[in-house]
Amino acid sequence: MLVNQIEEDLYLFVGETYRSNSTIFIAQNEALLVDAVGSHSDAVLLKNFVEQKLGKEVRFIISTHYFSDHLAALKLFPRASVIAHENYADTFTSEQYRSAEEEAHFVEPDILVKEGITIRWGRFTLDVSHNPGHTSSTLTIDIPQADLLMVGDTVVGNIAYLMYSTPECFFTALGRLQQAPRSRLISSHGDVRSTAAIGNALFYLERLRDRAFASNASGTAESFLKTPLENFMPPEVEPTPFERIFHERNLRTILERKLFA
Fold first, then answer.
1. Which of 35, 56, 74, 142 is the most buried (most CB within 10 A)?
2. 107 and 224 housed in the same domain
3. Which of 23, 75, 68 is nearest to 50 (CA)?
4. SS3 sequence, 80-95?
5. What is the pLDDT of residues 189-223, one digit of tens each?
6. Which of 52, 78, 71 lies closest to 137, judged by CA?
7. Is the entire prediction scored with pTM above 0.85?
8. How wide is the angle at C-alpha 194 spanned by C-alphas 193 and 198, nearest 5°?
9. Do 137 and 35 have their domain in common?
10. Over the stretch 246-261, which tens digit does the pLDDT of each residue have?
11. Nearest alpha-carbon partner for 170 in 154, 189, 185
12. Quick check: 174 and 165 in contact, CB under 8 A?
């Protein structure tokens, strides 16, 4: 696991499983979490860190989207109120590639968001808004006092993952994210990054669209499936193994669902 103390009262806990994370906002003796890591073993470590190391009680947990790799710790904080978008059930039931353990992570949320909600927590104001890109339940959280934008999985590394959505939804969602005047970004996997990743994801989508159109026009679907991720990324961005997995799924999804037809 990795624990990054971003500020005196703000921590990011990154688990071993999928590098799924949980962001911890401190206010006096209580904590508010955003997302809840991806496995029971990581959830136990998160609970120990918050309750024993920090000495805080978790009061709220905000789910950026209701996929099981971000829900593992919900059952370990029974006194916490879980906040999610009203489409949470549609997201959870649509999930693929889920293990039996991950299926068991599900907990009914306590507070449902439709368009948005503002939460004041200690010195932070969390501006929570519905931003359906990756899923129909995705929430974006803008925290001006931390110069931080939390995007769920609307940005995966430096790309977008199309399995559960459409390119049109992603273009709209990423465009909204670019309007926020923040320099730091947290997605639901990994550590704090630059919001430049949003522009990289848009670049990736635009190249996908262009190459898909070219493939449709020339009838070279097999060639399209073999196109490496480097061909879709800005030249200064080096693809990671994590991104390559989702890129390959994207190519198959585009052809199967004719997303750019």
1. 35
2. no
3. 23
4. CEEEEECCHHHHHHHC
5. 999 999 999 999 999 999 999 988 887 656 667 78
6. 71
7. yes
8. 105
9. yes
10. 999 999 999 888 888 6
11. 154
12. no
